Amino acid sequence: MTLSRMSRIRIGSAPDSWGVWFPDDPRQVPWQRFLDEVSESGYEWIELGPYGYLPTDPEVLREETGRRGLRVSAGTVFTGLHRGPAVWDETWAHVSRVAELTRAMGADHLVVIPSFWRDDKTGEVLEDRELTAGQWSQLARGTERLGREIRDRYGLRIVVHPHADTHVDTEENVARFLDATDPDLVALCLDTGHYAYCGGDNVKLIETYGARIGYLHLKQVDPEILAAVRAEELPFGPAVARGVMCEPPSGEPALEPVLAAAQQLGVELFAIVEQDMYPCPPDRPLPIARRTRRYLRGCGA
Fold this sequence. Notes:
Layout: E1 9-13, H1 31-40, E2 45-47, H2 58-66, E3 71-79, H3 88-104, E4 109-114, H4 133-154, E5 157-160, H5 171-180, E6 187-191, H6 192-197, H7 202-208, E7 213-218, E8 220-221, H8 223-232, H9 236-242, E9 245-246, H10 255-263, E10 269-273, H11 285-298
Parallel strand pairs: 1-2, 1-10, 2-3, 3-4, 4-5, 5-6, 6-7, 7-10
Antiparallel strand pairs: 8-9
Protein name: TIM barrel protein
InterPro entries: IolE/XylAMocC-like, Xyl_isomerase-like_sf, Xyl_isomerase-like_TIM-brl
Organism: Streptomyces boluensis
């Protein structure tokens, strides 16, 4: 795989790869250390992570990222749009803050993650695992509305992230969601690890729904740990703590074919490394990040 064949793929990393899941948590590394180490690892692009982890003052954040040679590719929000118009105002209050900072940092994408059907820490079931037909309709129409508002007000494109323990997870549910939404308003953030975690074939998805792929998250799952997670029906949080998301190239899916398929789409795409590691020792992320960046260069990215 030559560098020229990966010329359309822009590689970055995210706070997630440093064990950051929350705006403030004593088990997480300080944001200054994250910025120092992600730059030291050889990445030029980052995501904002949970809103409030990095400085939310654009001038401060531009100074801190700029002097480390970093740029922002996207912000991230969680939504529960399948619950209908009743949640719109609360959703928009959060989303608009993140979108404003994302735009101020010069990024073009907003990653949208559906809400969990069970608590990712305790495993408490919060709602039914499967959506009704009416809830699917609410999810589709609400996401289209979000895509339109974000585009018109902030000039950003939403990319919806299929995620374990949400309603947009398996091949069947991802296809149903894509088929129900307007391609002009809703694109997909394909997370290779989450899609494999839920049984999906990443390359097949890219080949089938290529026009809908607007963004990539790169991660792998450990197949042996995943088998135990499925057998025990573990929630996603405890599964991560057990190490279900692993360092490339030791897991699945193989990333080189995924990157090659994405390159064949003929469009520029961000491919952001996100190795879920919450919680993790503070000295663990940097060596992994360096090795992962070196591995991806070997893939031509």
